[in-house]
Amino acid sequence: MPGKQDDTFVIGRVLDGDRDAFALLLERYEGHVSRLVAAHVPGQHVAEVAHDAFIRAYKSLAGYKPVKPFRNWLTTIALRSCHDFWRKQYRNRETPVCDMSDDGQQWLETAMAPGSNEVFESQVRQREAREVLDMALAHVSPMDRMVLTLTYLEERTIKEAAQMLDISVPNVKIRAYRAKRKLKVFLERCGIQGGAHEA
Amino acid sequence: MKRKNEHIHRLLKEVHANRPEWTPTPAWRNSVMAEVGTTNQVGITFEFSRLAPRLTAVAIAATIVIGVFATWTMVDVSGELYTALSNQAVLPTLMETMI
Questions:
Q1: A166: domain CATH number?
Q2: Which has the closest alpha carbon to A108: B10, B18, B11?
Q3: Is the pLDDT reported for residue A102 higher than 70?
Q4: What was the ipTM of the complex prediction?
Q5: What is the model's pTM?
Q6: Measured distance CA(A111)–CA(B61) in Å, rounded
């Protein structure tokens, strides 16, 4: 038996009924999943969504095929949990045109002013800046939001995003293009000419 | 315009990168393991369930309509075949009678 049991061996143990062995997978990947989830959902919901991701992984563990690393498989599950979180949120939302708070509007104006590089260095106005970004992302569908976050904000390749989300490359391309256009329209409505560039 | 676009892109990227991190706590780990202890594995997820609910409903409806149409067509075709074969059988008999 190897010193550090590999994922496939641990998965085998879990599937054989040793539920406690799942703690090994949890320990190994909790950091990865929590970082991933924290990048996609608001801070107060990260614990709940990460929890959901691990439970989903446990439930569908029998469906895992070791043709790709367990980490990648878990990444797709975690992102799907984030996607489902946004789907639930969007069902109950009221769509605002551009009703960000005065703080958010003020941040946007300051940030767009010439020589505004020090705005971020100060870290003082992160809350307002995040509000602007969240408002902008709220204008695209949950899946487009996931694609936009991965390709535009994290600058992952189309292929990488497709693998992470388990959707096709053309699908990612279309969604990325559509989401950037919506983002551009939103920023223009808020008085920012230019917006997201097509790429 | 291009510079402005790049500026916005950079700003949004920085905001995204500065999202607060979250570190799993022992209480969180225990809650996950407690749920694992009471949850049953369901095996391979049915592919259809991954589709959007509305798309799934439309796909099921379309399948039912196509199925009904195909059944109706097959019943009709079999009726046509029966008539054609009956005619073929009746025709020689009529001709024999006429001769």
A1: 1.10.10.10
A2: B11
A3: no
A4: 0.73
A5: 0.69
A6: 51
